[in-house]
Each structure stands twice: as C-alpha cells, then as structure tokens.
Amino acid sequence: MTRITTPWLTSPDTTRLFDLFAQHKFQLLCVGGCVRNSLLNMPVSDIDMASDARPDDMIRIAEAAKLRVIPTGVDHGTVTVISGGTAYEITTFRSDVETDGRHAKVAFSDTYEEDAKRRDFTINALYVGSDGAVLDPVQGLPDIPARRVRFIGDASARITEDTLRILRFFRFYAWYGDPDGGIDPEGLAACAEGAEGLEGLSAERIGAEMIKLLSAPDPSRAVAAMQASGVLARVMPGADAALLPVLVHFETELPPIWTRRAMALGGESLKDRWRLSKADAEVLSHGQEALAHATDLSELAYRHGASLARDVALTRAASLQNPPPAELEEMLSQAASATFPVKAADLMPALKGPALGARLQELEARWIASGFTLTKDALLDA
Length: 382
Ligand code: ATP
Ligand code: MG
Fold this sequence. Notes:
alpha+beta; two-stranded antiparallel sheet; 11% strand; binds adenosine-5'-triphosphate; binds magnesium ion
C-alpha cells in the first residue's frame, strides 16, 4: 500500500473538509495533480477533490459549517469550498456518457472507480483520502516512477470524446514524461490520427494548454513529437521545433518563459489562434520583429526591457548554434535602465508640434547609437 505524507493533506484546512464530509457520510478524496505531484516530489499548486456528494449537498453542508462556497461549475459537478486560507475545487464523481468532441456530457456516479475512467491519463487518476493511502483504480501507480503518460482506456476513443486531450497528452509528457523512455507510441498515434479535430477547439483552450506546455522546464521533446504527429502545424502553423532544444540548452538557469520558447518556434497569428492577452501578444510581436530585422540588442532592451531583449538574444544564439556572449546580462541591464537625457522642454520654444517630435526621435536614435554615452549638451550642440 502506497501512502503519501505531505503537509497539505494533514493541514487544518484540509482536515476540516475531510471531517465535515465524513460527518455527513460522504466520501471525499484528493485527486489529480496534487496526488501525482506529491508522489513525484514536485510542488503542488492546487488541491482538486472528488466526492460522491452532489453539488447541492456540498453547498448545503459547507454553508451549514459556515464555509464559503463558490458554485464554480455546478452543471458539471464542481464547487469551490474555501477552508481557512485554501480554496478546494470539489467535483462530484462522474462518468462521461456522451460527447461531441469538445464538451463531454456528464452523469454523476457513486464510486471513485467509475470516476477514474473518465479522467485522461493514468497518472492523473490516483486518489487519496484522509489516511494518506493511495487508491489506484486504473493501475496508474507504476507509471509514476516510470514517468509514463498513458491514456486511460483506448487512446483514440478518449480523444474522440475530447480533442483537448491531444494537447494535454503533450503537456503532461513535457512536464512529467521520461525524456529517455520516449513518448507513449499508442497515445502518439492516436493524437496524429485525431489531429484534425483540433480545428474544433476554441482559441482560449488551445492557448491555455500551449502556454502550460511551453512553460515546462524542457518542452523540446514534446514539441518535436507534436511536429512529427502533425499536431504542431494545426495549433501553431508555420512553427518549427528545430531550434527549441538548442534554446533550452542556452537558457541554463533562467526561469522558463513560454513567450521565449514561442519566439524560437516561430509561427503566425498566435494572438488570434491562442486568444493571447494584449501584453503577451505584444511581447511576441516585438520579439519576432526584432528577429526579422536583426535589431540591436541594447536598443531592444532600452525600448522594451531586458527580458524581451534577452529572449531575442537567446533565440538568435540558438539559430546560430552559438551561446550568447558572457557580458550579455550586464549590457542588457545597462541598456534597460538608461534614461534619454533630452526632454521636450530642452528644444522649446524653438521647435514645437511634429517638428519637435521628429527632432527628439532623431536625437534619441543618435544617443542609442552612441551606446547611451552622448550627454545632453553634446546632443543639443549637434
Ligand atoms: P495541474 O493543475 O498541475 O495542471 P492537474 O492534473 O490537476 O494538473 P487539471 O487540468 O487541474 O490538471 O485537471 C484536474 C484533473 O481533472 C486531472 O488530473 C484529470 O484527472 C482531470 N481532467 C482534467 N481535464 C480533463 C480532460 N479534458 N479529460 C479528462 N480528464 C480531465
Ligand atoms: Mg489541477
């Protein structure tokens, strides 16, 4: 019997919920990422739970216990209960009954064994109750140390039920898969076969998955497999996986930033295809423009910040297969904090309106070209 001991399982906030559900004769189990990551000794970000209680039962008992409840997705069985400082997403045991490839129609069920079958991968269908004992209804435990990402049941059928699982397959492989053991061939073949169905997914869902995938410490094997199976071309037309392993190699200790990886992959119109925020879309378009026009790195750092300039530098380095220069960081931080010494007031009243703007731009360009060294006097005398 495998047991997990972890602070989040025995915390007062969690214990309060276990006790509350037990008192009302309901089952309550933690499931999904929290169990998987605890077994892998990886950080746990949120606690998902499953129960035989129906949403209205959960709301009733939680409110009676003076806990705040948010009806997150009552139709598909999910409520969020706030216990102490922690939010717990609790979903009624379910089984998928009928699907249109995008939204699984759900029916509630009474057992966690049934609930497990509707989940996507074996490593995501491990359950744990208040005693810490791990329940493994679909034989996923051996896949944890082996780092195998496998569909529960028939991979093609599971993809037909919900096409998003294609992207989840690559995302979980990127984060938890064994890089040397390779990707599960049955799952990969099913993804290749079902790739056309990706056209039916919303841009938001594609974007959210791709951002999580590209934020993995090293997503390069997963992305290479996406390219080989024809999935990458569907969600990121024009992208090429070739530079990614080199980029990740040059990143060394830097935190993984998905926009940097996306820049190195290339590809068109991600703003619309992934429904990106304005800020993210701007980072990508500035980066791609700088790559296309070989913009000077210090100018880029001055105009758009060190982070963007660093990402462009690393992407260039990857395409040249040559590490970035050792003095890169110093150069970027100097450039990013440089302040243009001339103000509009310095040129007035001699100049005004568009002529003033044009002159300021011209002086700024000259100052940038000098490596930010020309002084205000030197610039105004010129
Ligand atoms: P993390 O939160 O760390 O990204 P997670 O495993 O908790 O990982 P979630 O997206 O939060 O992933 O989903 C919680 C659980 O719900 C999953 O572990 C899985 O069991 C199930 N699940 C989520 N989405 C699907 C899906 N599209 N098809 C089948 N099961 C799913
Ligand atoms: Mg989760």
